[in-house]
Amino acid sequence: MQEVFDFVKKCQTYYLATIEGDQPRVRPFGTVNIFEGKLYIQTGKIKDVSKQMIANPKIEICAFNGQEWIRIQAVAVEDDRLEAKQSMLESYPSLQSRYSATDDNTQVLYLQDAIATIATFTGEPKIIKF
Q1: Domains of the chain, earliest start first
Q2: Mean per-residue pLDDT for 90-117?
Q3: Region of residue 21 (phi > 0: left; psi between -120 and 50: alpha; otherwise: beta)
Q4: How far is residue 12 CA from its own chain's centroid?
Q5: Nearest residue to 58 via CA among 108, 31, 19, 107
Q6: In whole angstroms, what is the distance from residue 8 CA to residue 15 CA?
Q7: Mean pLDDT (whole number) for 53-79
Q8: Whole-prediction pTM value?
Q9: pLDDT for 114
């Protein structure tokens, strides 16, 4: 999992795919954190992406570093604990002007049953499960 975190963190921007009804939705994200041995992402509960992950928690993430790309398929599981939210916001101080661990909007989710594939155009893909 650490290798997946390092890859995504280094890319800075990754793309998160969800489903809304029968329509795929993809948008850029930038938050990723490890807390209590799990890989977390963050959003706001008022956003459509939050509603989509609650309705169907199966997600995919994709990021590209210029030479390799990573695809992560997982189930996004909400963790509403104050400690999980605080850990994310401490990792991203710039978010603290818009989010708070105690507000009703901040949402953190960890990736469960994740399968990450790191690939290039020339080499064999590397599979990481966590």
Answers
A1: 2-129 (2.30.110.10)
A2: 98
A3: left
A4: 12
A5: 19
A6: 10
A7: 98
A8: 0.96
A9: 98
Q: Per the structure block, which two tokens stand in for 101?
A: 């661990």
Note the Cα 79 to chain centre separation in Å: 13
Is residue 25 within 8 A of residue 47, CB to CB? The reply is: no
Of 81, 80, 61, 79, the C-alpha closest to 71 is 61
Q: What percent of the chain has pLDDT over 90?
A: 100
pLDDT band, very low/low/confident/very high, at 34 (cuts 50, 70, 90): very high
How far apart CA 102 and CA 85 sit, in angstroms, is 8
Q: Is there a contact between 85 and 92 (Cβ–Cβ < 8 Å)? A: no
What pLDDT, on the 0 to 100 scale, is given for residue 22?
A: 95
Q: Which residues contact 30 (CB under 8 A, 6 or more apart)?
A: 12, 13, 14, 92
Side chain identity at 40, as an amino acid letter? Y
Cβ-Cβ contacts under 8 Å for 43 (sequence gap 6 or more): 29, 31, 49, 50, 53, 107, 109
